[in-house]
Amino acid sequence: MTAGISMGNMDEASTVGVFVSGMMSNVREMSDAFDAFNAIRRGATSNTAMVTWIGYHAPNMLEETVQNRADAGAPRLASFLDGITAQRAGNPVNRLVGIGHSYGTNVLAEALKRTDAHVNAYVTLGSAGLKYGTTADQLGVDEIYATHAKGDNIAQTLGRYVQFRSAQDDGGGTYEARVDPRDLDGADEFTSEKTEKGEAVTMHNLVNPVDWSGIPGAQWLADTVDGTAANDEIGYLNAKSSTVEELNEIMRGTWEKHK
Predict the structure, then answer these.
(1) Rg (CA), the chain
(2) What's the pLDDT score for residue 45?
(3) By CB distance 3.0 to 4.6 Å, which of 4, 10, 129, 197 could disulfide with 160?
(4) pLDDT for residue 89
């Protein structure tokens, strides 16, 4: 099942954010991001709409190691972005921002390579890495922002370094890790650590921590591996996180490097 839910009026909003979820995401969990989206919209100085888009078959942990799901989902997302532009032809969006999490950053990057829509900013949260050879110029955006929390131990390892590339995709060249969006030309890195704006992100997930409570002893293992108990975890889109306020500023176009 695929779906997209907007918070705000997509026909009138001067600023629109499109959020693309990552590995193992599904329609049932779409509401996870709503508190964060409400916080971003409350902090906006203009009429803002936030859309969470689950329009592709998100990969499981094994499928995350290959490019197929991103390549299949990208044309659908590109069409969605084109549709926003077409729908608003008489009243163009002033600022269109694409935000991806985990594997969703890969899907979004591939969509940006295909869309005719003018997307102002590309934003990544805990990216699992972009397709081999991706460059900033290919994305066609004005601004690139990326964050990766120190407490996120999944995307940094499994996402970027455990991958399989076919000879058909890249000629069978020497292995290289997926592209870290923080390394793209012109990319600005923003923080997901504790600041005056909010709490530090302690895990890879957006809101809900790993829940292995149904398996005897497993939750203890999950909590021990990253050093934070499930009840104390803060995700990228937890409304208490510093990430949400950073996104607020990026959406408004007022973000500046921290002094």
Answers:
(1) 18
(2) 62
(3) 129
(4) 93
**Quick one: how many helices (H) and strands (E) in the chain?**
8, 7
Q: Which of 54, 41, 53, 37 is nearest to 13 (CA)?
A: 41
Query: Do residues 220 and 153 make contact, with C-beta atoms less than 8 angstroms apart?
Result: no
Beta strands in 34-107 (DSSP E): 48-54, 95-101
pTM, rounded to two decimals: 0.91
Q: Rounded to whole angstroms, how far apart are CA atoms 96 and 111?
A: 14
Mean pLDDT by 10 residues, the chain (259 residues): 76 93 69 77 78 87 85 95 95 96 95 98 95 94 96 77 69 70 97 95 85 75 72 90 94 81
Q: Which two tokens stand for residue 98?
A: 């694409």
Indicate the SS3 state at residue 45.
coil
User: 23-59: string of b/e by CB count within 10 Å (b at 16+)?
Assistant: bebeeebbebbbebbebbbeebeeebbbbbbbbbebb
Q: Which residue do the tokens 């099942």 mark? A: 1
Can you read off the two tokens belonging to residue 213? 């409570």
